Amino acid sequence: MNASGSAPLGANSEVGQLRAVLLHRPGDELKRLTPRNNDQLLFDGLPWVDRAQEEHDAFADLLRSRGVEVLLLSDLLSETLGASGAARIQGIGAAVDPRKLGHTLAQELAAHLRRVPAPELSTILTAGMTFDELPVAANTASLVRRMHHGGDFVIDPLPNLLFTRDSSFWIGPRVAITSLALPARVRETSLTDIIYAHHPRFRGARRAYESHTAPVEGGDVLLLAPGVVAVGVGERTTPAGAEALARSVFEDELAHTVLVVPIAQARASMHLDTVCTMVDHDAVVMYPVIQDTLSAFTIHREDKGVSIRGADPFLAAAAEAMGIGKLRVIDTGLDNVTAEREQWDDGNNTLALAPGVVVAYERNVETNARLEASGIEVLRIAGSELGSGRGGPRCMSCPVARDPL
Ligand SMILES: NC(=O)NCCC[C@H](N)C(=O)O
Questions:
Q1: Which domains does the chain show, CATH number per domain?
Q2: Whose CA is nearest to atom 11 of ligand 1?
Q3: Rounded to an integer, what distance in angstroms lies between the CA atom of residue 221 and that of residue 232?
Q4: Measured from the CA of 267, which atom of ligand 1 is nearest?
Q5: Of 30, 301, 323, 360, which one's alpha carbon is 20 to 30 angstroms from that of 126?
């Protein structure tokens, strides 16, 4: 523990004892979802918001009961916006887009937002704002306003903030602010950037990877072992993003090996952590359909530059890089149909609290039974409403402090 009694920031594995985690309790942004926009906003259904909040509260309480400090993004954002004018200007600048609103309305809205109290600004930056909610006088000389419906968004909501895994990740003592691939999520990183840059809880935290051009999403990044990072390349993270990440962690001496893992460009496998997560030092829960075909390019840091090998079978390449004989695989589900159903419902997306102790959605009965049969302690949470965003316990959490392995 450091002087303030908090665990030191950082993580060098997926399974080190979890000490502190960043979550986002879903808010009014989920009430913005409609059948007309849920696809574009990357939700596969319309969650019952109150119940999603209850499910999330239960998730947070479970973590607290296991000694994990739960940091809530909205609290941190509100505190940051209240304490830092620079954070306020940065948050408003990312949200008020003159290309969308026109110069006149953008200026008026930004001026207004600079005056609202921090909690209200935090809600606007996360839940968005419609033209009907615009505090600007209706007679404004804004053609943009006159040509929009009242329900159109002036500031888009961010319903995927719930998935704090993707917009930042810690590697060693540093935090990486990611670059999210799809328009509905791009602005999330402006909020995580503000929090890590200005909130006292992260004072002194140094940055790892930062690329504003080549997408890398946190759900694609697995810290397989100290010095060994896997990064999925598929629907979200690009080869250029993986290459930039490898270069960055090598230069910062945060890793000696990066495994680049091609995955299908499909929603069901949108991130590597939807098909494979670590549940113990030497064990993964994995979607069996891809077990034999998952491959990896191994990028190794050399004295002068890097070496690239592959593609080789992922499991063998990972075990070699991790310096273990074999990576134990625990399958999703019993048969192909069950496996496909439970993979879709995030049965592979577990969050490890410690080696051999994971949080998983209760609905994935067969996968959870197979985890327990393999000696893994499974802490079950409800996800009937949370799951409509297509993310599980790992997606909904960003470990900011884990005991080093
Ligand atoms: N790590 C993850 O798998 N995150 C899940 C993100 C779900 C979100 N609705 C998305 O489509 O980006």
A1: 49-73+159-402 (3.75.10.10), 74-155 (1.10.3930.10)
A2: 42
A3: 7
A4: 11
A5: 360
The best mutation among 395, 396, 398 to test binding of ligand 1, ranked by most ligand atoms within 8 Å of the C-beta, falls on 395
Residue 405's nearest CA partner among 140, 225, 236, 278 is 225
CB atoms within 10 A of CB 226: 17
pTM of the model: 0.96
Which value does ipTM take for this structure? 0.99
Tell me how far apart the alpha carbons of residues 280 and 375 are, in angstroms, rounded to a whole number: 10
Give me the mean pLDDT over the 116-137 stretch.
93
Q: Is 42 in the pocket of ligand 1 (CB under 6 A)?
A: yes
Among residues 52, 221, 258, 395, the one annotated as catalytic is 395
45: pLDDT strictly greater than 80: yes
For 334: left if phi > 0, alpha if psi spans -120 to 50, otherwise beta; the answer is: alpha
398 is catalytic: no
| Residue whose entry in the numeric block shows the structure tokens 């003159």 | 98
Residue 237 CB less than 6 A away from ligand 1: no
Quick: pLDDT tens for 188-220.
Answer: 999 999 999 999 999 999 999 776 678 899 999
